[in-house]
Amino acid sequence: MARPKAFDRQEMLDKAMELFWLRGYEATSIHDLLAYLGINRQSLYDTFGDKHALFLAALNRYEERGKASIIATLEQPGSKKEAIERVFRNTIQSYAQSKPRRGCFIVNSTIELAPHDPEVAACVVESFACTHKAFCRALSVAQEQGELRTGYDLESLARFLTITMQGLHVAAKAGTDLAALHDTAKIALSVLA
Predict the structure, then answer these.
(1) Burial of 3 by CB count in 10 Å (0-12 exposed, 13-18 middle, 19+ buried)?
(2) How many CB atoms lie within 10 A of CB 27?
(3) Which of 2, 26, 59, 93 has its CA 20 to 30 A from that of 112?
(4) Could you tell me the pTM of the whole model?
(5) Dist CA 167 CA 173 (whole Å)
(6) Residue 188, SS3?
(7) CA distance linking residue 107 with residue 59, whole number of Å
(8) DSSP string, the chain
(9) Per-residue pLDDT tens for 129-147?
(10) What are phi and psi of 177, to 5 degrees?
(11) 89 vs 146: CA distance, rounded Å
(12) Please, what is the Cα angle at 82 between 79 and 84, to 5 degrees?
């Protein structure tokens, strides 16, 4: 009779996500994962498959959380223009809380792996598409609420906000100070005026 696993899969996935997010894929060895997760090699392979499969699961877990957070903020009742501004503010504020600054796991993975890993690239494309759609919906409602003048190409504006957000992640990871990030977001959001 097989013994039941002595660990929680989601908890292990969250821990793996933290380690990959901090170090990146290439700099994280199987040995590092085993030590950090506190499990043996066979348990890792039985539960998650190989290192790459674990990485993809961690990346998807991060994406689900990030998507849920952005969508929850954008779908709150009230001003959609203010909700979009809040997404940017919350994102920048999150940088102040992480030492060292890790940036965005999706964006980090884009830079490290997407050019030569089709599975990571597909996850990244899906992530950016979800963010784009969420901004697009919020902008549409903002326009209906009279907060945004008509005549805007909402698809292009949502794409601009999505790409600006990704750029902020890269700049934050590179060490740009929070005041400069806030100034950049303020200028980017001025297109909504």
Answers:
(1) exposed
(2) 11
(3) 93
(4) 0.89
(5) 10
(6) helix
(7) 10
(8) -PPPPSS-HHHHHHHHHHHHHHH-STT--HHHHHHHHT--HHHHHHHH-SHHHHHHHHHHHHHHHHHHHHHHHHTSSS-HHHHHHHHHHHHHHHHHHSSS----HHHHHHHHTTTT-HHHHHHHHHHHHHHHHHHHHHHHHHHHTTSS-TT--HHHHHHHHHHHHHHHHHHHHTT--HHHHHHHHHHHHGGG-
(9) 999 999 999 999 999 999 9
(10) -70, 155
(11) 22
(12) 110
| Length of the chain counted residue by residue | 193
What's the CA gap between 141 and 48, in Å, rounded? 41
Single-letter amino acid, residue 39: I
List, for residues 32-58, the tens digit of each pLDDT value.
999 999 999 999 999 999 999 999 999
Q: Quote the CA–CA distance of 104 and 135 in Å, as a whole number.
A: 18
| Residue 81 Cα to chain centre, angstroms | 21
Q: Which two tokens stand for residue 95?
A: 């940088």
CB 146 within 8 A of CB 79: no
Angle, vertex CA 12, rays to CA 72 and CA 112, nearest 5: 75
Look-up of token digits 């908890």: 11
The one-letter code for the residue type at 69 is S
Q: Which residue has the tokens 């994280």?
A: 28
Are 81 and 135 contacting, i.e. CB atoms less than 8 angstroms apart?
Answer: no
